[in-house]
Amino acid sequence: MPTRKCRFCHTQVADTVVDLGMSPLSNSYITVDQLNDKEVYYPLHTFVCPKCFLVQLEEFASPDEIFSDYAYFSSYSDTWLTHARQYTEAMCERFAKINEKLVIEIASNDGYLLQYFKARGTPVLGIEPAGNVAQAAMAKGIPTLVSFFGRTLAQKLTSEGISAGLLLGNNVLAHVPDINDFVAGMQIILQKDGIITMEFPHLLKLMEDRQFDTIYHEHFSYLSFSTVEEIFDVHGLKVFDVEELSTHGGSLRVYACHADHAEYALTERVTSMKDKEIAFGLNKIETYYTFAEKVKSLKFELLEALVALKKQGKTIVGYGAPAKGNTLLNYCGIRTDFIEYTVDRSPHKQEKFLPGTHIPIFDPKKIRETQPDYVLILPWNIKDEIMEQLEYIKEWGGRFIVAIPAVEVL
Q1: Cα(406)–Cα(395) distance, rounded to whole angstroms?
Q2: For residue 311, which of 69, 81, 240, 360 sits 20 to 30 Å off, Cα-Cα?
Q3: Does 273 share its domain with 363?
Q4: Which residue numbers delimit the Methyltransferase putative zinc binding domain (predicted)?
Q5: Local structure of 287: helix, strand or coil
């Protein structure tokens, strides 16, 4: 067995959390001309560090391979746009000085969030490694650097007089293979009295609700509050507050500042969150050993439900082509024998095929045309938004299926 070192503390890591077998990159969508080409599969095997309890994947595909031409555009989710707008309003209300300071977003995608700061007259800068996505932001008038973020870029920007009064990142902390370089870069580019907010899916919710489909090769790390606090502390940053969010099935938003900045005192929520994680057992290696059996159980539940419906002659299609959906389908062995097709609002995914399973992706209007009996919602974290959009399937008696945290027919 090869030696693995924790990407944060460099302790030797050997303890398995869950092994989901071999899987292609979750955003490597297939064109019709590529259907008969070779696909590359990588191990989807998570490990936990016995010292810092960082759950992690090995790095098989480089960030350049994953993010240089990216298929995910944030603005196609109404729920996520609402979340971004509400965040902007909350930050400007809580930290009044932000209105005059530069707001920098790391992994700014298509400008889905910075557009709300820009509309208020706040200066903004996006940093986004995927050139195709960054172009969409620049078309909205959002200044965007096409680059990966870390120490080198932070030092370059500060040497040019660019620093952040508010530095934010949503669902990026888990996406960086060198988490030390990334957090060190944040410390460099943050103004002396600046604020950092980072949002990331909470490891506790992943394990509690069997959210194994959020494990894919873009996510190098799976984060608890306590581990993030430790990483920030090592790099001279103090986490002074935390909020629990409903996004992505349960996320955390942490607030941080320079460790020597006294303006922001630790809130009670910091202590409460650490106590909550201890009560769940995230500080005990034994807790992580039970997750794999929970994942197998969910796989069997889903397959049993789908087999029963297919035996009744029912038609089943999917909604969405998210990365998490590709983990679910590949791990469970669900292909066109179960799911005839899926649909997605993003034109960047339509007329392509899901990696591994080769399930075709169409425009959502396909559902009205074919009137399936069941729609399996793959981005279950926004199921309410999707069920509202597709309420019309009730006209022919159509119903919805969600798989996580438990298989339900709605």
Answers
A1: 26
A2: 360
A3: no
A4: 6-67
A5: helix
